[in-house]
Specification:
Layout lengths: L1 H11 L3 H13 L3 H25 L5 H22 L6 E5 L2 E4 H21 L14 H18 L4 H11 L4 H21 L9 H21 L5 H27 L5
Antiparallel strand pairs: 1-2
Helix pairs in contact: 1-2, 1-3, 1-9, 2-3, 3-8, 3-9, 4-6, 4-8, 5-10, 6-7, 7-8
Length: 260
């Protein structure tokens, strides 16, 4: 499963956290709040290795990465350092109804997955870059949005970064995927190191999982030479949709108290 996380990042430049968080929560049994922290490290480390490969291939657009990265990093730091610690363990506790922080994170994550999958499945959601001038103000605003989402639910944000790089920054798909890895790696590491205070980390497990993910991203970058990203996006979208619906159903049962 960890290898699959890396393959997803290497092939389509997104999907790493969408796979990592559910794997950690439902397969490994890690609490959702801690799983988002673990996910940031796994995805960040894997994307960093993918960035090194993309640098060798001279596929990175540094100006766009910086324009997107600065507001994104700032948002992540503020959310992980100041907002998330303020969220109580029990967000709502009225009569027999209790909404915990972990359930709220997973519900938000599932909604995000469903929304993402629709964009991936929709024909032409990510295609050839437009020949319009680069709008750096839009890139800046998208950076704030992605950073905030990364901070809350522990995702690298590739599914939001790719469309921005293609349609707003006018980058070709292959170049957008490579550049997204640099942004994802930076965002994820900032989010991770902003979350360490008070967390008990299983470093042995985390490094093993990350190592397997790195093998996957190297495989994904290799396969990307032969596989069309545009054709792969819809297929991956259906997979994400199925996972999103499963998480929504599972967490809804927990929320209603039927799973106890």
């Amino acid at each position: 499963m960890a290898v699959l996380v890396g393959v997803s990042l290497g092939l389509v430049g997104s999907g790493g956290s969408i796979l990592t968080v559910p794997i950690l929560v439902y397969v490994v049994g890690v609490p959702a709040s801690l799983a988002t922290t673990y996910s940031l490290f796994v995805v960040g480390f894997s994307a960093f290795v993918g960035t090194l490969k993309a640098t060798q291939d001279k596929m990175l657009d540094y100006r766009t990465a910086i324009s997107f990265g600065i507001p994104s990093i700032s948002s992540i730091f503020l959310v992980r350092s100041f907002l998330m610690p303020l969220v109580p363990t029990k967000i709502v506790n009225v009569a027999n109804f209790t909404l915990t922080k972990d359930v709220a994170i997973m519900l938000l994550f599932a909604v995000l997955m469903v929304w993402t999958s629709v964009a991936m499945i929709r024909e032409g959601a990510v295609g050839k870059a437009e020949n319009a001038p680069t709008d750096y103000s839009k890139i800046f605003l998208r950076g704030i949005l992605v950073g905030s989402i990364t901070g809350i639910v522990g995702v690298g944000g590739g599914f939001l970064i790719i469309p921005t790089l293609v349609f707003v920054a006018s980058l070709p798909m292959k170049r957008a995927v490579a550049t997204s890895l640099l942004i994802i790696a930076t965002n994820s590491f900032i989010g991770f190191f902003s979350s360490l205070q008070g967390q008990v980390m299983d470093w042995q497990f985390l490094l093993i999982f990350s190592g397997c993910s790195v093998m996957g991203i190297l495989l994904g970058r290799f396969l990307s030479q032969f596989v069309s990203n545009e054709k792969l996006k819809p297929a991956f979208g259906w997979f994400v949709l199925a996972m999103g619906i499963y998480i929504l159903a599972t967490e809804s049962v927990k929320l209603m108290g039927l799973g106890r």
